[in-house]
Amino acid sequence: YRGYMSSLNDPYSVYYDKDEYTSLNEETSGTYCGIGVQVSQNVYTGIITAVKVFKNSPAQEAGMLPGDILYKVEDLSLLVSDHIRGEEGTKVHLTVYRQSTDEYVEMDVERRMVENPTVEYELLDNHAGYMSLSSFEEVSSEQFKSAVDDLASKGMEKLIIDLRNNGGGVVQAAKDIADYLLPDGETI
Asked: Among 175, 169, 182, which residue's Cα sits nearest to residue 28?
């Protein structure tokens, strides 16, 4: 099956075995036991970069910064993102490459239950709501609806939705968000 999918020459079409599929479902649920960092893997080079470090997460507490390249987890330099998660309360040793200072930084990070805050928002001048939506996870639609309601209660008249660096995710979450914004009776 892997060979068949590989023959498509599409970097986004992949075959998942049982364990990989379980991991994917855990990843898209929006809640998991890990270090609290959103990563992106370059499909051509395999380099894994911290795109977002969640506020008050174990990764932030340990000093990880957005843009850090995950070089090693423990002594492994391949498939490092698969080894970040683990049992709650256990520690993981990371080595990251920080381009801004051209140095390798080592840190020990404790794994905890983390909810991916996929929505960040604020009310701007002139009653404009600004919302950054980093991914479409199972928790995203509820986070989005709560953010819109909060902004509306503060006097929002218009909304800017920022999808930069959004790597996609669960189609149903994107559908639920669009459905919430569309007038009643419209379908997506």
From this structure: 169
pLDDT at 40 over 60: yes
Q: What are the residues whose beta carbons fall under 8 Å from the beta carbon of 127, sequence distance 6 or more?
A: 155, 156, 157, 158
Phi-psi region at 3: left, alpha or beta (left = phi > 0; alpha = psi -120 to 50):
alpha
Helix segments in 48-161, DSSP class H:
58-62, 140-153
Percent of the chain surpassing pLDDT 70: 92
- The residue assigned the tokens 């986004």 is 12
Strand order in the sheet with 48-53: 37-41, 48-53, 69-73, 91-98, 103-110
Question: Rounded distance, CA 53 to CA 55, Å?
Answer: 7
92: Cβ–Cβ under 8 A, 6 or more apart, which residues? 35, 73, 74, 83, 84, 86, 108, 109, 111
Q: What token pair was written down for 159?
A: 């909304």
The DSSP output letter for 149 is H
Burial readout 75-95 (b: 16 or more C-beta within 10 A, e: otherwise): eeeeebbeebbeeeeeebebb
Residue type, 83: H
Task: Look up the pTM and report it.
Answer: 0.61
- Please give the radius of gyration of the chain, using alpha carbons only, rounded to the nearest integer: 18
Sign of the C-alpha dihedral computed for residues 60, 64, 69 and 74 taken in this order: negative
